[in-house]
Design brief:
Length: 157
Amino acid sequence: PIPPPIQTPSPPPVPQAPLPSTQISSVNIGQIQTQVQDLNRQINQLETELQNKNNQINELQNIATQKDAQTNQLNQQLATLQQSMEVHKNQVNQLNSHIQQLQTQLAEAQTQARSFSAENVQLKQQISPLQAKVNELTQEISAKNKRIEELKEPKPV
């Protein structure tokens, strides 16, 4: 806070040499009284202006104090938000790293799936001739079993 201004009193009027009593007349007294009244009015005006300026200074000091408090509060909020932002940045980095790992795993799985698919096609191609061979051998076994059964039967003599 700004310290209140130091109020300096107005300088005293410059003393004038006293007039000899013979020269003082009622006109001079009236003029002097008018001058004193004018000076008193000026003093009152200056004191009022001084009070107004002091009030303005106090208002500005209050505003400055409020602004300082607001600035401190905003600085605290900024620090909190920066900490929060740092936490979120770290989370984003972790998530991006995890996404990268998942994308790598997906690419590997897709490559493996294509390999399995090609291998599956090859195995299916191999199954067809093997199945034909199994059918052929099954027929041969059936024919031989039939022949064995025929041979087991007694022959008429």
